[in-house]
Amino acid sequence: MRKSVFFSVAAATALVAGASVAAEGDTLAQVKSRGELLCGVNTGLVGFASPDANGNWTGFDVAFCKALGAAVLGDSSKVKFVPLTGQTRFTGLSSGEVDVLSRNSTWTFSRDTDLKLDFAGVNYYDGQGFLVPKSLGVSSAKELDGATICIQTGTTTELNLADYFKANNMEYRPVNIDSNAEGEQQYMAGACDSYTTDASGLAATRAAFANPDQHVILPEIISKEPLGPIVRHGDNNWGDIVRWTLFALIAAEEYGVTSANIEELAKSSQNPEVQRLLGTTDDLGAMIGLDKEWAKRAIAASGNYGEIFAATIGEQTPIGLPRGLNAQWTQGGLLYAMPFR
Questions:
Q1: Total-model pTM
Q2: How many CB atoms lie within 10 A of CB 223?
Q3: Are 61 and 41 in contact (CB under 8 A)?
Q4: Residues 120 and 241 placed together within one structural domain of the fold
Q5: Which domain holds residue 171?
Q6: Is there a single domain that holds both residue 242 and residue 182?
Q7: Per-residue pLDDT tens over the stretch 176-231
Q8: Looking at the DSSP assignment, which residues form a beta bridge with residue 124?
Q9: Buried/exposed code over 12-41 (b: 16+ C-beta within 10 A; e: otherwise)
Q10: Distance, CA of 149 to CA of 217 (rounded, Å)
Q11: What CATH number should be reported for the domain holding residue 155?
């Protein structure tokens, strides 16, 4: 109880600080003045956000931050990556420790309203699953009655797990962890029978194992987990910049704009939407405090949405994720950019 009270007070303090950050001036001006974008990311999840031995960050969520840095500051390298745990990510954003959170975070009612956060959109449609060793002899989550399960605290995963087991009249013993690295360590040490988190996270975790084929992601998906970048309430213009940067990456894939042909299309495309997107005609950037080529730079930084997906978590990577729901709407998926006009 004392821990819960302390967390509530800390969260409330962070939210007040966040409101102060927003009141002091717009985030865009602060980022430009600083000359650096502060991006909150996972403490380490291969494929989504992880540093190499030299401290260079790569991954799906990292690529979005680089695109945003290119759009706002003209340079995708002007991004500082701030690793945040499941428990510290929202207070880190609310307090102004980071300008944007791009960290496997699910859009929920309470986070949007009670925590006073704004989700800029969905960049990955996910769902919660279960990872188990083949040696356990389990082929369904409904066979996990009485199992010990590693679970990150301060996440929707924790709540979904309780709901699922209650609905199926089963029991489990939680092993609380603070990060994916700890979850991987505890799972591999045999401290839990199963590790549960977003299915994409499980695929990333399994890919890092020395013997990934000895571990199975069970077929049940027990929740909806729409993941996306987040900003603070109270700065609508900054929210627009983050939202439309995401839309720019999605729209670029739909219209065939890639990192390889972007310069050519900027000069020759006859598609009015592409012309507006790349700043050839109109000046959409002026409406959000940026120049005409902000979206062009965002796309050029790491490629369009499809290029980023393929390079970081796609089927040809060790993570091996299919596009599935994250395909373009024209390909049977849910990805849909709002019109650039």
A1: 0.89
A2: 18
A3: yes
A4: yes
A5: 128-224
A6: no
A7: 998 888 999 999 999 999 999 999 999 999 998 999 999 999 999 999 999 999 99
A8: 227
A9: eebbeebbebbeeebbbebbeeeebbbbbb
A10: 14
A11: 3.40.190.10
